[in-house]
Every structure is written in C-alpha cells, then in structure tokens.
Design brief:
six-stranded mixed beta sheet, elongated, 10 helices, 10 strands
Length: 376
C-alpha cells in the first residue's frame, strides 16, 4: 500500500510539473510563481487538476426542511433579481514546488546546459549529513514516521491492533532516531550583482519586469551553485548599493548616468570578491537612455578593462519604457561585437557580454534563454 501511495504521489508530481511546463510563459509573464515565495519553496496556482473529494448524496430531511418554496430568501427581504451563473468554474488550487524543481523545469523548457563554474578554486565546508536511522538518540532527532511504523508493526504482530479503534502507542523499543555524520563538501561560490536604472523613465511596470526576471535568474543560478550571494545597486546620475526590498521599490526623478553603477560595481568586486575564488555574474537593467555619448564611452571602458575580464557573464537587459527606449544596447553591440573584451583578457572562449530586450512580459522567457543558453 505504501509503495502504491508513493507511485500515485510521484505521478501527481509529474502531472503538476507538466502543467507548469505547459503554462511556463504565462507564469513568467504574470508573476504567479513568486506570489508566495518562501525560503526554498513557492506555492503556485495550478488549473484543471481534479483532487479527490467527498461527494454527498441527497439529504432528504433534517435541518432547513421546513415551510417555504425553493428559491425564497431566508428571513426578511425579497430575493434579488440577479441570477447566479450557470457556467462551470475553473478548478484552482496551490501546489508547493521547490525552487530546485522550478529551475529544472525552466532548464528543460529552455534546453539550458548546466553551468560549469570557472577556475579550480573551491571552498570546503563541513556539514552534518543525516545518513540513517538508529534506536538511540536525542529526542530532537526522533523520526516520527519510523517510530510510528515500528509501533504499528509490533501491535499487528501481537494482535493488539484494533481497526475499530486504531490507536498506536509507541513504547521505548519502537522509537527511532536520525543518525548523522560530518561530511566535507566542496562549495562553488558565486555572487550576483544586480544593477538597475531608477530614473524617472523607469516606472512601476518596468520594475515589475525586472523583478520577475531577477527571480528566475536567482532560481537558475542557485540551482548551479551551492553558495551564492546577491547584491543590489541602483542609479540615476549617481549610484549606491541598497537592499533587495529597496531595489525593487525605489524610484528617482533624475537623469541617468550608467557609468556610476559600473564604478560602484567595480569597487564592490575589488573589495569583497576575488575573481579567483568567486564566480561573478553581473546584470544591468535599464531603458537604454544614458546621459551622454561621453558616458557611453566611459561605460565601454569600465566594462572592457574592469568588469568583463573578471566576471563569468555580464548581462544587459534593456526594458521598454513608456517614454521610449534609448540606444545603450546598440552601443554595447558596436563596442563588443563578439561579446568579449577587446584586449582578450578573459577566461573563456565564448561571449561574456550578453544582451536582451524585454518589451513586455511575454519577452521574459526569451530573455532568460538569451542569457543562459551559452552555459556560462
């Protein structure tokens, strides 16, 4: 019976994954997957899967069967004129899915290769790994299900189990505890630095597009690295580092100087993230409207000499603005036609600078494909 239940559960999980994969573009564009984001699990709404439920027969007597005609209102007042709808509603319920499962669904749908961390440097961490079950241990590690199962087996063998009164009472010999051992685990470290233009031309809709894309960037990279940090930089004509909540809510009314964000990012990496020990991912979001051609040249210089040589990837996402999009994405294409520093000082043979355009929510999936198909 237990094996049958497990098979049914696995089949249900496969059905759920299939529905998510089928509707992935819709989930990406509407943000349904991050509506209730937790630490490692998100609750997502899934349509059109019937869950077993009780169906009751006709109760022909009892409470509520007094005088009155069918359809009359209860108590004082007249019945309304608005009739209820006759159409069948959509079945909707929430399913808990781990972020690793979401990342795997994304990878399967977009056919993404697994990322290979650069360099040979790895940090070794020591952690406890639960490796089995034993009969002694601290109460904090008691395994409830295994203890219950041992008690049930004992009562069945002794003929003490009563199906009419299924009370299971474990005794000391039934108790089971998790056992553990210390293991050394190599850990690949990565840092993601998000940079965003928060000038007046970047409105609420643009920030929502950035929030959705950043969620999926985080989800995919965390699937490939055991240790990861995220840092956030905002800028108009000046840049500063902020926390995650501020990053997605702040709005300024000034102009735009993109180089200010690149300088803060450069200082952050030089002070805290040694490229020999960290895999570095940089993402910049903007509507492409920079302050001047002179600042465009400064940005190219900073990218070429300081940022691209030390990072795994520099991703630039140009988000469409209601005020019109600028030319910065074309500046990058002209300066780095093959997506590599012009000096050749880089650790890989493929492109490092990758770009995408997001004109609306339906473009998020294509943007993620552009960033992660190279497998950097």
């Amino acid at each position: 019976m237990a094996n049958k239940i497990e098979q049914d559960h696995q089949r249900f999980r496969q059905i759920v994954k299939g529905r998510i994969r089928r509707d992935l573009r819709r989930f990406l564009s509407r943000g349904e997957l991050i509506g209730r984001e937790g630490r490692k699990i998100v609750s997502i709404p899934v349509h059109d899967i019937d869950i077993p439920n009780f169906r009751y027969g006709d109760n022909s007597g009892g409470v509520g069967m007094g005088e009155g005609e069918e359809g009359e209102s209860v108590g004082q007042g007249q019945s309304g004129d608005n009739a209820g709808g006759e159409g069948e509603g959509k079945h909707l319920f929430e399913v808990d899915v781990t972020l690793d499962e979401l990342a795997d669904i994304l990878a399967e749908e977009l056919q993404l290769p697994r990322i290979k961390p650069k360099g040979a440097h790895r940090i070794t961490t020591i952690r406890d790994k639960y490796s089995g079950i034993r009969q002694t241990g601290p109460e904090s590690l008691r395994h409830f299900k295994r203890s219950y199962r041992e008690a049930l087996k004992r009562q069945l063998m002794l003929g003490q189990y009563d199906p009419e009164d299924p009370v299971i009472i474990p005794v000391r010999s039934d108790l089971r505890y998790r056992s553990w051992k210390e293991v050394k685990s190599p850990q690949s470290n990565a840092v993601i630095v998000y940079m965003m233009d928060v000038s007046g031309s970047m409105g609420g809709e643009q920030k929502e597009l950035v929030r959705l894309e950043a969620f999926w960037i985080d989800t995919w990279l965390r699937r490939n690295y055991e240790g990861i940090e995220s840092r956030y930089i905002v800028h108009d004509v000046a840049a500063k580092e902020v926390d995650k909540e501020t990053f997605f809510s702040i709005r300024e009314d000034g102009g735009t100087r993109i180089s200010s964000a690149f300088r803060v990012c450069q200082d952050l990496i030089e002070e805290q993230y040694d490229p020999n020990a960290w895999n570095i991912y940089l993402f910049h979001f903007s509507d492409g409207d920079n302050s001047s051609e002179a600042d465009n040249r400064t940005c190219v210089k900073l990218l070429n000499e300081h940022l691209m040589p030390v990072c795994n990837m520099f991703g630039y996402c140009q988000v469409a603005s209601a005020y019109g999009s600028g030319n910065f994405i074309n500046v990058l294409h002209e300066a780095f036609p093959d997506g590599r520093p012009t000096g050749g000082a880089a650790h890989d043979d493929g492109p490092i600078l990758l770009t995408s355009r997001v004109n609306g929510r339906d473009d998020i999936m294509d943007s993620l494909r552009a960033f992660f198909t190279p497998g950097l």
